[in-house]
Design brief:
With about 280 residues, this protein is α/β, with parallel strands linked by helices. The chain is about 30% helix and about 25% strand.
Length: about 280
Amino acid sequence: MSALGPLQDLFDATTGEDLPLPCEVASLYGKLRTPRSPDRPHVIGNFVSSLDGVVSLGLPGKAGGGEISGFNPHDRMVMGLLRAAADAVIIGAGTLRASSADHVWTADYIYPQLADAYRELRAALGKPGPPLNVVVTGSGDIELERRLFRSGDVPVLIVTTAAGARCLQKRGLPPSAQLEVAAEDAPVSAQAVLDAVDRARKSELVLIEAGPRLMSDFIAERLLDELFLTLAPQVAGRDEGIERPGFVGGKLFAPDHPVWGSLVGLKRGGDHLFLRYAFASA
């Protein structure tokens, strides 16, 4: 059983159907509602940010979200919940490189204390297996020796360009990984990624744990429906020597084309805040 205390529910304007959360998860998180998009998957993003907007320290071995959240158990519990609810989890090559070699994007990996409850939720949702792990790479330059590709623990889809596919095939693509060519040249659009996911697995809920550039593509193409943002109570700082991005990068929105979100949820776990924003679709 989890030793966590429940998140404090401060504001909830979420809509959609209540997910059938097991009692152990519901006692920690409360209700989780997810709207349905009529003609495509409902797309959600999940990030943790410092108070000054940093999502990665940009240091070898310390570039992941754990260093930002302080490896906060509530944050990892929420990550697990979103992965448990999702049909597919999308990451980029940069996120893959920043993660540990044994990382798989499943609920029980990120928060094993609730592994049984997460599996119960997936079974209740009619999703008995793990979510499809989707890796987006333009060049095909990814480490195929990782557990994600070699263990067969999770279904894997690599979305790439024609050149990226040739590179991967020359290196010997693991039999457990499915390959989709979504564009002739880089970059691969967010819509092309969703289309590739749809061909591989019909999905109602898609979770993005990708880095700032791919996240920016989903926002620019108005394909991000909601953002789950954990606000960690640390100030990370920036200087000219180390790149420390926010959760979007590579595109400008404001002042000409600002993207505004609507706050639909706010929870508190100690000094961490768990925000949920909804965005208007195109």
